[in-house]
Amino acid sequence: LILWKVPLDFRKPLPEATVEKVKEAWDFQDASRIDPAALRAVLADAQNNFSNIRRVFGYTKLFRPDKTVSRAEAAAVLWYFGDQKEGISAQMALQQSQNLQ
Hints:
By secondary structure, the protein is mostly helical. Helix content is 50%, strand content 4%. The radius of gyration is 14 Å and the shape is elongated.
């Protein structure tokens, strides 16, 4: 989910990432278990004040990359698109669409 969602939030190339950089940014004890294809998205998400990971899991030390995402967790991630400067929540999008009608 993070691999798919974070590029939509940033709308620019994601930073180069290593397990060490992800550990430094998030302090995840299981950072070495994160799929290498997802490392860039996980690292980029740490730079967003409206981080998807923080919004769903709070301040956690375990990323648990093997765990299936629940519907509630997916809903929390999908509730907001963008960063703190140029983002929009589902509620804001609904209000805007109602104003257009």
